[in-house]
Known about the structure:
By secondary structure, this protein is mostly helical. The protein has helices spanning 8-27, 29-87.
Amino acid sequence: xxxxxxxxxxxxxxxxxxxxxxxxxxxxxxxxxxxxxxxxxxxxxxxxxxxxxxxxxxxxxxxxxxxxxxxxxxxxxxxxxxxxxxxx
Length: 88
Protein backbone atom coordinates (compact mmCIF):
# COMPACT_ATOMS: atom_id res chain seq x y z
CA UNK A 1 0.00 0.00 0.00
CA UNK A 2 1.54 3.28 -1.11
CA UNK A 3 1.45 6.00 1.51
CA UNK A 4 1.16 9.71 0.74
CA UNK A 5 3.44 12.02 2.67
CA UNK A 6 1.73 13.20 5.84
CA UNK A 7 2.99 16.75 5.28
CA UNK A 8 1.50 17.14 1.80
CA UNK A 9 -1.93 18.47 2.94
CA UNK A 10 -0.24 20.99 5.22
CA UNK A 11 1.77 22.34 2.30
CA UNK A 12 -1.44 22.93 0.35
CA UNK A 13 -2.99 24.83 3.26
CA UNK A 14 0.16 26.91 3.67
CA UNK A 15 0.21 27.76 -0.04
CA UNK A 16 -3.42 28.90 0.10
CA UNK A 17 -2.63 31.08 3.10
CA UNK A 18 0.47 32.55 1.44
CA UNK A 19 -1.55 33.31 -1.68
CA UNK A 20 -4.10 35.22 0.42
CA UNK A 21 -1.66 38.00 1.28
CA UNK A 22 -0.77 39.13 -2.26
CA UNK A 23 -4.37 38.70 -3.37
CA UNK A 24 -5.40 41.02 -0.57
CA UNK A 25 -3.33 43.81 -2.08
CA UNK A 26 -5.17 43.52 -5.38
CA UNK A 27 -8.63 42.25 -4.48
CA UNK A 28 -9.24 43.85 -1.12
CA UNK A 29 -8.79 42.95 2.49
CA UNK A 30 -12.17 41.20 2.77
CA UNK A 31 -11.23 38.70 0.07
CA UNK A 32 -7.85 38.08 1.67
CA UNK A 33 -9.51 37.61 5.06
CA UNK A 34 -11.98 35.09 3.67
CA UNK A 35 -9.17 33.22 1.96
CA UNK A 36 -7.17 33.18 5.19
CA UNK A 37 -10.17 31.85 7.11
CA UNK A 38 -10.72 29.13 4.51
CA UNK A 39 -7.03 28.22 4.63
CA UNK A 40 -7.21 27.94 8.42
CA UNK A 41 -10.34 25.80 8.21
CA UNK A 42 -8.64 23.62 5.61
CA UNK A 43 -5.63 23.23 7.89
CA UNK A 44 -7.79 22.20 10.86
CA UNK A 45 -9.82 19.78 8.74
CA UNK A 46 -6.59 18.25 7.44
CA UNK A 47 -5.29 17.75 10.98
CA UNK A 48 -8.58 16.13 11.98
CA UNK A 49 -8.58 13.78 8.99
CA UNK A 50 -4.94 12.79 9.50
CA UNK A 51 -5.68 12.00 13.15
CA UNK A 52 -8.52 9.74 12.01
CA UNK A 53 -6.22 8.04 9.50
CA UNK A 54 -3.57 7.43 12.16
CA UNK A 55 -6.16 5.95 14.52
CA UNK A 56 -7.52 3.70 11.76
CA UNK A 57 -3.99 2.53 10.92
CA UNK A 58 -3.35 1.68 14.58
CA UNK A 59 -6.63 -0.26 14.77
CA UNK A 60 -5.77 -2.10 11.55
CA UNK A 61 -2.37 -3.04 12.96
CA UNK A 62 -4.01 -4.40 16.13
CA UNK A 63 -6.44 -6.45 14.04
CA UNK A 64 -3.60 -7.78 11.88
CA UNK A 65 -1.77 -8.89 15.02
CA UNK A 66 -4.91 -10.61 16.32
CA UNK A 67 -5.46 -12.39 13.00
CA UNK A 68 -1.85 -13.58 13.02
CA UNK A 69 -2.28 -15.00 16.55
CA UNK A 70 -5.55 -16.70 15.59
CA UNK A 71 -3.96 -18.28 12.52
CA UNK A 72 -1.07 -19.60 14.62
CA UNK A 73 -3.49 -21.13 17.13
CA UNK A 74 -5.50 -22.67 14.31
CA UNK A 75 -2.36 -24.25 12.88
CA UNK A 76 -1.40 -25.69 16.28
CA UNK A 77 -4.95 -27.04 16.66
CA UNK A 78 -4.81 -28.76 13.27
CA UNK A 79 -1.40 -30.27 14.03
CA UNK A 80 -2.52 -31.56 17.42
CA UNK A 81 -5.68 -33.05 15.87
CA UNK A 82 -3.56 -34.80 13.25
CA UNK A 83 -1.19 -36.18 15.87
CA UNK A 84 -4.11 -37.36 18.03
CA UNK A 85 -5.63 -39.10 15.00
CA UNK A 86 -2.33 -40.88 14.26
CA UNK A 87 -2.00 -42.03 17.87
CA UNK A 88 -5.54 -43.46 17.94
